[in-house]
Structure formats: structure tokens, C-alpha cells
## 1
Amino acid sequence: MSAPTQQPTPTDGGPAAGGPPRGAGRAAITNAAREIFAERGYHGTSIRDIAARAGLSLSALYHWHSSKQDLLAALLWEGTNDYFEACERELAAAGDDPTQRLRAMVRSSVAYRVRRRVESKIIAQEWRNLEPEHQERLNELADAATRLWTDIIADGIRRGVFHCAHPEDARRTVVAACNAIAQWYDPAGEVDLEELIARYTDIALRVVDARGS
Amino acid sequence: MSAPTQQPTPTDGGPAAGGPPRGAGRAAITNAAREIFAERGYHGTSIRDIAARAGLSLSALYHWHSSKQDLLAALLWEGTNDYFEACERELAAAGDDPTQRLRAMVRSSVAYRVRRRVESKIIAQEWRNLEPEHQERLNELADAATRLWTDIIADGIRRGVFHCAHPEDARRTVVAACNAIAQWYDPAGEVDLEELIARYTDIALRVVDARGS
Amino acid sequence: MSAPTQQPTPTDGGPAAGGPPRGAGRAAITNAAREIFAERGYHGTSIRDIAARAGLSLSALYHWHSSKQDLLAALLWEGTNDYFEACERELAAAGDDPTQRLRAMVRSSVAYRVRRRVESKIIAQEWRNLEPEHQERLNELADAATRLWTDIIADGIRRGVFHCAHPEDARRTVVAACNAIAQWYDPAGEVDLEELIARYTDIALRVVDARGS
Amino acid sequence: MSAPTQQPTPTDGGPAAGGPPRGAGRAAITNAAREIFAERGYHGTSIRDIAARAGLSLSALYHWHSSKQDLLAALLWEGTNDYFEACERELAAAGDDPTQRLRAMVRSSVAYRVRRRVESKIIAQEWRNLEPEHQERLNELADAATRLWTDIIADGIRRGVFHCAHPEDARRTVVAACNAIAQWYDPAGEVDLEELIARYTDIALRVVDARGS
DNA sequence: GATGAATGAGCCTTCATTCAT
DNA sequence: CATGAATGAAGGCTCATTCAT
């Protein structure tokens, strides 16, 4: 169907309900692409599937996006960027303390994986299907996000707050744990977001061996 | 490039070493498929690519495997089964102690992800491209593997050796951390397998909050 | 871009000079179409290309011309007609003498191929892409032009001025020679129009074997 | 080559009559392409049209030719090369005399345009649709053919046998006249090949102003 | 055991065109 | 006068698969 599954896009919001209200083309397509790419993967998805789910013709899709690859690139970049900005926002509020900063990162990450499960899956799996130029651009953003984690853990160790011997492996573990959430979390289940954040914060603190905080 | 990149498969074993493994049709194809599926994904790989890398004709491929889907299914099942058997082997040697059993699981998992990086990537990513019947069969095996972890952690808690409040999240974290190794580990790097096992064992024990062992 | 490359079209004539010919929609489109049809051929040209080079939107194009085919038909007819009228004009001034009349035809033809190279190419190549009705209409005009040549040569032979045994082949040769000019003539080269006319008049007179004139 | 439009190829002769005898793929396609490209032009021809006329499936076409462009390039190259070789063959037999050599060139050219009308049309019209690399390769061959004419006329003038003042224009006229034959000649008409050669030889000699031979 | 030829379905993309505004 | 959004048909090409040899 054409209804946005995830975050509402400012551009649409319009008449809604039913077929895509003439003019909501771009968003309808983006949403449809997001869903189907997540379900079947980039190569497993045909551009006809996307157009159909968006309730538009094949050609309308090309009116808004120049190619299947651009559609993917836009989706991945938008998603990664949103994640990065969410982290920065939480960090800005977290102050200077490594433990608080690590908590902020876990909160941002878990929240993102839960709220944007669909993007999260795509980002994890379809990254390799980007053409080199798009991939490079995305890499820089991803590296910046990695650095956020790295710096916090390094700082915690320096200040004697974290005690893990291998910070890189600790970082990888925490990130992998948060990322995995997108694969299994059921929003209809018993665990709500805040509870989940609490649980993964605990785990993260154990992984970096935080003591006395 | 028909030469096996990874572990030699028992099925082949032939004259090997050098040119296109004389008469080793089946294995050549399996190996080629494994590599290319890992590189480009199931839908991104064409059966012609596989035949070409195996140094065989398209028709030869069909002589050995009945379809592209079967090729994938065989690969995934074989890989998952090998992993499961490796776990059982290590567990048999580990005795009854939860800590020793968890160590055994981490050892099996890390070793598998390192030695069979290619299969590991495929298992992680291409699972969804299996047709339902194959998927179901594989699911049972995967669930059995999950149960190995679950039972060990549950036992550890019951015996007061592990203290984590949310065993499922602990299990997911440890498994995700081990799985991720396949994505980043560089066998030419400085960290050898035993060192890596040691590090991830430590992390796993912190995640389940093992005390006094 | 959108500036007319060749002769100014009476239809436009507007403010012109510089940017997109203000309000000169129709002419801008005709000119753009002429250029691109000549460069890439009818089927090799998209209506979007034309609109883009004219600096107009796709819909504007349809405001002025009812279809791609009509655009071609208009171009071809206009061009052929201009050629025919140029011939008649020169002939009217040439009087009755077959030699003078042949000279007039060569002059008209060479001048047209030089001054309107672009149209000339289109007329030569895109004729076959006209739909039957347009083609028929154009044929009549082309036949009339052919008859101008035929009659002059026949008259010259009758009067004993020309001596070629096969007037049709002579006519075809002269016409082919003039037509070819559009393909190779370089207006920036050393040979100017008058010189070229002189040369081809000589050739034509040799081809029809004119003696004592 | 199986479909009989033009010269018979020794390679075929097989089962004939009816659909293309399994195995005659390559030639059937080449022949079909030649015909349709000549009728509708490169861009006006769809690869499906070609396959259909060849009595094969679309995919079979791609089994034999890697792309539509390659099909065109092969056709153009083959045709131009055949023409060039025919010229060289006739010239070898013509000896040293400029008049005899010019006669040989006219003979080769007229014969080619008559016997291979279809190729001739394609060569004349579709040259511009070749991609640059193919175009360049073909250009060299075409230039070599041009040089054959140029050298003969220059030699004739030097020896005082030809007297035209502008050899390049003479050459262009003769070549254009011969080329044009492909457009109008009707093999079912009254003029046979030898007669046509005689007529165009006469014209050519008049154009270069050959005297006393 | 292995091959080359052939196929039908489907892929991404572009086309000429229309229509509400 | 002019536009942006939308469309159905068609374009070139690739796919997994089959079959006679």
C-alpha cells in the first residue's frame, strides 16, 4: 500500500487515506521503496514492485527519481544521516562525562533501531549495492558515527571510568548488539522502548567494564 | 578462478592444486557460488557468473545442481550444519560447568566466523532468499543452535554463576558480537585466532555478568 | 543552446539576440528541432531533447506543435519548398537558353546546400520517417523539382546544345553532386560560395556534354 | 547467411525454406538486421523486429551478437571492406594507365551499389550511429577508399590525360553519382549492370575531362 | 559428463503524449 | 501561454532454465 510506514514526511501529510493523493508522488515512492527494499533486498526488488506499492505508474517513479540506484542512495543517506544527527543531539545534552555520553549513544542507537527498523535493515544489508561514489560519501558519514563511539570509550578509559582492555572490540560488540535489535524487536511485544534502552545501557556498561558510576 | 578460496570441502579433495580442479565439477561450482554469493548477494549473482568463475559451462552447472536456489540452499545448510556440529563437538569436551560451556560456545563461534568468513556472510544475509521449504528446514537447525546458548545461560543463572537480569538480551549481544567478526576480521592483521577467542570470551563473560570463575 | 544556427525564420524575427528568444516559442522549437534532427536523426532525437535545446518545457512544445511527426513534416516541407521557390526565382531570371537555365539550377542548388546545410541533411535523410500522407505531399514537390532539371536537359538536347546520351543519368549525377555538398562543405574553408557555384556549373556542363556555349 | 536477400553465401545452402534451420542463427540475424536497418534506419529498428524477421527469439540474437551496436558495426565494416577489396581486385587487373584505372574504379563502385544495394544504403546512412571507436576504425577504411580515387585522378592530371581544374570536386561528383545508384536502381528495370557501368564510366570520364583516350 | 544453441519472462529505462492547473 | 505530474507502450538487455547432441 501507499501509506507511510514510518516517520511522516513533512512534504506529504495531505489528503491521505486511500490512493496516493495526486501530488504526493515523491514521498509515496520513497516509502514504498523503503519497505520493499527492506523485505526483498535491492536486487530482489523490481522497480515495478515499488511503483505498484506506491500506487503509481512506472513512469511516475522516474519523474521523481532518476534511477533505482538513486532511490537506494537517497534512502541510505537519509537514514544514516538521521541516525548521526540523533546521536549528536543526545550527546549535546549529555555533557562531558563518558558514562553519560555512552548512555546517550546507546539511547540514540536503540531508539533509532526500534523506531526506524526498516531503514536500519536496509542500511545494514544494502550498503554494498551502492555504486562506488555513493558508497564513499556514505562511508564518511558512517566513519564519523563510529568515531563518536570510539572517542567516548577512549575518553572513559583515559579517565579511569571504563576498564576494558580492547576498546575496539568493546565498541564493536555494543554497536552489533544495538544494530541487531532491528532484526528481532517486535513493537507489539512486552518490552517498550525505555525498558530496552535501560537493558542495553546496562549491557554496554558491562562490556566497557564501567565501575563506580 | 576456480580454486577454492577457503577451507577445502570434503566432497572435493581431488587432484586439486593448480588449474581447474580436474573432474571436480561439483566442488568447483560450490566454491565459486560461495564466493560470488558472498560478494554480490543471491539476486546480484547470475548463474553465468558462477559457471564462469568455476571455469565450467553453464550446462555443466546444471548437470551438478538442479537450480540456483538449490545451490544456495545447499550452501546455507552445509554452513549452518558445520557450525552446529562444531559447537556440539566443543561442548562435549567442555563438561558440565556453565562457564566452561559458554567458553566453548564462544570458541566455536569465533573460530567459525574467522575460518569460514565467506559462509558466515552468506548465512547472515541470504537466508531470506530461500524458498519457504528450505527456510523452514534451516530454521530448525538455527533454532537448535540458539537453544545451545539459551540453555547454557539459563543454567548459569540458575546455578548463580551468571547474574544478568535479561538472559535473552545477553545471548543476543554475544551472538551478534561473534557474528560481526566475519564482517571486519582481517586474517592478515595482528590479532590471531586464539587472541580473538580470548577477547570475546572475556566480553561474553562480562555480558552474562559471570562472577567468581 | 537555443539560438538559431542558420537562417532567421520569418516567423520569429522578434527581440532575439541573446537569451532564449522571448516569446518566440514556435521558432525556438523549430530551430532546435532542425538542429537535433540533423545531428541525430528523427528516431535518434527525443522530444525532450528538442524542448531542452529550445529552452522550453515539454508542454510548451506541445502547445506549438501537435506531435513529433508534425514537427518533422513542417521542417521538411518548408525546406523543400524554399528550395523549389529559389529554383523558380533563378529560372525566371535566366530566360530561355538551356545553358543559362542549367546554370540557374546549379546556382540555386549549390547555394541552397551551402546556406541551408542543416535542412539539406534532414531532407536527404529523414524523408523516409514521414508518415505516408506527409510523404506523398512532399513527393509531389520533389517531383516538380526533378522535372525542372529534366525539362531543361531535354530541351538542351533537343536544341543540340547538350549532347549526353542518357539524360536521366546526367541529371542524377548533377543533382547528386550538388546534394553532396551539404555533407562536406565547410563555410570556414577557402572556397567561397561563388567559386563553388562556378566549379559545379563547369562540372554540370561537362556532364550534360554542353558544347559551344 | 541464410536469408537470401542479397549475395548468396557459400556457408548456407542448407535445409533452407521455412524457418531458420536450427543452427543457422548468426547468419539469419545478420541478414535480418541488414534488411531492417536499411528499411527503417538504426534507431527506427528494434532488436525485437530483427529477431522476429530472423525467426528467432530475442535472446537468441544476444547469443550471437553482443549488442545492437555491434550488429550495426559488423554490418558496416563487412560492407565497406568488401567494397574496398573489390576495388583493389579490379585495380590490380587494370594496370598502370589512369584511364583504365578510373574505369576499374567506376566498374567496382557501380557493381557494388547494384549488387549490394542494401548494404550500400546502410553504409551511407547509418555511419553516424556508430559509437566513436567503431566510427574511427571504419573511417580509416573509408579514407583508404577515397585515396584510391584521389591518387588515380591526380596521376591522370599529372600525365596530361585528365584535365579537370578541381580534382577533389571531380572525385566527389563521380563518387556521389555512383553512390546514388543504390537509391534508385531497379534490378527489374531495363538497364542491366554492364550498360550502367558503361554509362557511368562515360560520365566519369567527362567529369575528369579525359581527352584522347 | 559436458556442450552450445535456444527460449520466455522479466529487468531498468526512455519514449511520445495527455491533462489538470 | 506555460507548467509539472502522470501515463502506457516500447526500448535494449539479462535472467534462469531447457534440450538436442
Note: The longest helix of chain D spans residues 68-94.
## 2
Amino acid sequence: MSKVNLKTLAAELGVSVSTVSKALQNSYEISEETKQRVVTLAKQRNFRPNVYASSLRRQQTRTIAVIVPEIANNFFAFAINGIEEIAQENDYHVLIYLTHDSYEKEVSICEHLQSGRIDGVLMSVSTETNDYEHIAKLMDKGILLVFFDRVRHEIETAKVTTDDFVSGLNATEHLIEQGAKRIAYLSLSSKLSIDNKRKAGYMEALLKHNIEFDPNLVVACGNQQHEAYQRIKELLTSPNRTDAVFASVEKLATETYMVCQELGLKIPNDLKVICFSNTTIASLLNPSLSTVVQPAFEIGKQAANILFQHLERKNISILNENIILKSVLVARESTGC
Amino acid sequence: MSKVNLKTLAAELGVSVSTVSKALQNSYEISEETKQRVVTLAKQRNFRPNVYASSLRRQQTRTIAVIVPEIANNFFAFAINGIEEIAQENDYHVLIYLTHDSYEKEVSICEHLQSGRIDGVLMSVSTETNDYEHIAKLMDKGILLVFFDRVRHEIETAKVTTDDFVSGLNATEHLIEQGAKRIAYLSLSSKLSIDNKRKAGYMEALLKHNIEFDPNLVVACGNQQHEAYQRIKELLTSPNRTDAVFASVEKLATETYMVCQELGLKIPNDLKVICFSNTTIASLLNPSLSTVVQPAFEIGKQAANILFQHLERKNISILNENIILKSVLVARESTGC
DNA sequence: AATATTTACGAAAACATTTTCGTAAATATT
DNA sequence: AATATTTACGAAAATGTTTTCGTAAATATT
């Protein structure tokens, strides 16, 4: 395991360090014969240029960070999948950071990333994030950023999301068409732009169908599982009970299923349920779950593509732009289909 | 966005670069007064030491790689969750690489990682991996490695897995106790040690209960979803049909559910199903799914802990050791409970 | 007062690359 | 034959840290 670097290779070949470096980069300055000798020895010694030295000199790391709230979540897992695929294609490396929906953690991660470790960031903000100074600081250091899904509109850069408003409208309208009269909206956090857009779509659908909006039917469930369970239970045990639920995220729908199990409510007869979800087994649930499926994989790919394009073109800041990919509604038994 | 580094700070303060560096590291060589001045300016200028320069000099990166077959998989998602948690605690950074169960990709990733980018690796090998030279090469470069879940026993290092044999035995025995007579084993790949152990447990259970082992009931399903579907369909349509299925991974169980839907077979009456799985919604399936739940989060944490401990103690190679965390069997309707 | 020790800092090497620039020799051009 | 150009390489600077070692001044010890 004797160390091998440009210096040792050069010494062994009786040429200079720069010659070895250039030969390995297939530079026109080096004769074919020398290149051969260098490449052969490098291969034999299993030489790999030290990326930290080379990044330092080149002033680029070919590394990006992905900051997401969680990973045990089908949407984020698929999105990361897409990101990683594009990263491998472009020979970039992907650092992963989980905020667990904590604002403090998100800030701390952004602090850490100001140390030249990365060229760019793909980010989905936490539900608790209410400002954006930590993100602005990051960009001040010349780090490119692209948001996906959970964005902050105050930051001027590219944002890849799904058509949350329209999908929210469609999901709600679907419930109405299936006969629902009192539809509840289960919210994750009013700080999240996507949540607000889905809710806006929900309200638009009510308006369109002349259903009066009842603020009591908008339930802030939060991140904590047990808290969400409680809120939903309260909702489903309150007088003049709701007959349908539109959950802004999958977790809130599955919690609804659990609550119904406990209360003995039958889906879809007693309660219709639809939600944003990327689970692959929606059709196997009891009853099968109607979902709004986000193109998670595509969202990840697009976000990564935009970032890498700009990274290759150097120093060009990313224009403020909303890329919107369509979700698709899949109706199943939970809404009476 | 004028650049700020030790040099510019030193110039502005009228001291040397080394003084600034030492002051920021709170070295005893620097007076309190100077430290104050340095720290204040550094804060004001929002200075972060360049990690590539510092890694180069220190010869450690505080970065690890996690290599897994896929991420849209509850087991790996939870494991990565555990890894990331421990990494953040220890101030390490986590690079993620997906092999998509391709041997070529796994090799290529290992090649890339020989460039001094990382100090250590946590790895779950792909189902197609049949040798281990690429892994040995990595270790030759002085990179520490810990396996989790999908291990290669030929490599001498720590391996964190679950009690696959015993759990396989328990799962099979559970099926037998529930009245199953002809139990099939759905295998992912005979190249995987965990798969073989689960299968060995299955065979042991048959032996114990005097059930003759029928090789036709061991179905190699592979990674491809449609192929798995086909194999399972063949199994369930063949004469003298099996009455129970033990799936080595979740995906094969959900495929089984799909096949049963198509064939109109009723679980658990026509077919009992149990599988290794980490899905959080097993209880919501139709029918609810009996699972062997691996402590995925803990496995990730343990593997990361072992790696970091050795990284801190420098150069100490990791002893060959099998750490086995117990899985727990949760019986539900799919096995008639 | 002479010597020893401590304090507080700076110069420079080291980490492993990449890249600019200089140049000797070989070849081409007039 | 004299000059211009090309070829093939090397020296050295640069990237931004960390760390070793040297040392002048201040303080302590005899």
C-alpha cells in the first residue's frame, strides 16, 4: 500500500510531475510514446489523482448536496433516485443531508456547506422553515441552488415543483363528484408553499361547486405522528362529521386509515380519502387508496439537470423560474371508485 | 462576494496566515487579545476554512460513502436515516451512491472512490455481485469498510446484519403453525448471502417439521419487476399449487398480492403470505401483511458507529466481526391471524 | 546581572494537483 | 545557411490550509 501520486510516478519514470499530469490528461504537449509509458505505469500502480488536491487547484468539486426533510418517504426517495441518476451521468457526487423537518438543523447544514465542499445544492425546505437568510448566505458564497418540491419563492432561482394548485383542485373536485359534501383538508404546515397551493386548489374547488368553506375543516396536523393522529381523530369525532378527507401528504392519509380503523369508520362509505402520494402499493391498501401521484423521479432529474447545466457553464446565476411537472390523479376505492 | 481566506484575513489584520489559522483553532500559542481580533473579523467576513485545502493537508476528509442497491426501499431508506443521524453527530458527511443492483455500476463506483474522496464506506452489495476484487482494491487504498445487510463474507471487516437464518426459520415455522403444507420460498438472488441464510432457515423449518423440501418451490425471482411477477404467476398457476409463500423481500410479497388479485386467489385462505419488510403500512394492506421487520434504522446506526470509531482511531483496520441485530415477526391477516 | 524559560508570533514546508510560461532541440521555411 | 516554427518537456507558481520549527521579546530564575 505504498503511496502513489504524481511525484512517485514521475520519479519512477524519470520525467517531471507536470509531464505525468499532462500525459494523463492526454495533453497535446506530450508525445505519444511518453503518454504510453505514463498511462501504463499509472494503471499498473492503480493511480487515481487525489480529488481534494485537484478540486483545490481547479476550484470546483464536482459535488452537490441534497438537503431534504426525510428519506423514508416515497416522494423524496424517488426524487433522490432521479437526482443520483443524473449525477452519475454527469460524473458528479451527491452528499445527502436530512433536516428531519427541523429549522435549526437546516440552518446548521447550510452553515457547514459554506466551506467549499460543494458546487451546488438541491433543496426541499423543512416544514418549520420560516425565513431564508441561511439560504441566501449559501448563495452569497457562490453556491448554485435549485429548489424542488418544497420551495421558498423569496429566493430567486429555479424551482421544480408539481402543479399543486391544479392537482389540489382536481383532487377536491373528484371528492365532490363522488358525492362528498363536507370535505376536510389535512395540512402539514401553513409555512410550506406547496401546502398552501394545494389548499388554495381545495378552496377553489369548493368555490367552483358552491360549497361553503369551513375553516374548521382545515386541520393543521404537523410533523409529529401522534399529534397528527390526535388532530385527525378529533376531526372525525366532532359533531357534523366530515365525509371526505383530502390529505396533503401520504402520511396524513395513512394516519386517517388508522384512525378509521380505531373508530370503526368504513372507507369510502363513511369517509372518502384521497391524498398526494408516491407509494407503489396504493392499490393494495384496504381499501385501495386514491392518490395524486407526483412525478417524483422526473422532478429530481429535472432539478439536477438544471443545476448541472449551470455548473458547467460556470458562474452564470440561475434565473428565477418555475418548472411545473404535472401530477396524475389515480382514482381507487377510497373515493368510491 | 469578495473572496475571504486565511490570507486576506491575515492581511487585513496585519498578522501572518499561521497566526490566523492558529487563532481560529484556539491554539495556546496565540494571545487572547489576538484571538479575539481574529475571531471577530472571521465572523464578520463569514469565513469558513476551505475543506478541500484542509482535508488535503490533514489527510482526512470526514466524508464517507454509502453504497446501496436502491433507495426507494423502506429498508435502505431507514438504514440511511440511521447512518445520516450518526454521521451528523460525528460531524461526518455522507455521499450516496446507488448501484440499482448492477455489478458494473458497483465496480465503477468503487473505482471512483479510490481518489481520496472519502475515509470510509458503508456498503450493501448488489444482487448481481459475484466477486469482490473491486472491494478489495478499495480497501487496499486504506479506505475502511463496513458492510450492512447485504454482505460479502470473503472480505474481512465488520458486518452488521439481522438474524436472517433464525428469522427465516421463524417465518416459515409460523406458516407451518398456521396450517401451511406446501410453502414456497421467493428468492431475490442466490448470490446474496442474506438470501441464502433466509432460505437455509426456511429449509431448517421444513426439516424440523418433517416437510419434504421441494426444490420447485424455491423461486428465483430476480430484480426485474415483471420477471418476478411472471415467476410468481407460474408458481401460483402450476399444478399442486403452493398454499403459502415466504418472500425474502417486501417487493416479492407485494408482487404476490398483485398476482393473487389477477388470479382471484384469496389471501390468506388460498395462499398465506409472509415476508421480510420494513413498510410502515403493512397493517393497512388488504389483507394486512405479516412481516419480519428488520431493525433497519439500528443497523444503519451500528454500522456507522463502528466505522466512525475506527476512523477516529486512525489506521486501525476493522476486525472481522458479525454483528447481528434481531428482527421481529409481526403476524397479521395474510397468515391467517 | 547573567542565564533560563515562557510567550506570541512568523516563515516555510507540506498536502497533491493543475497550469502557465519558458526553453532546448528538432524540424520547416525562406 | 539563416531564421522561423513546432515539438516535447520541465520549473515553478498557484490553490488554501495546517503544522513544524525558529526566534525575538518578555518574563522568571539563579
Note: Chain A touches chain B through 53 residues (CB under 8 Å).
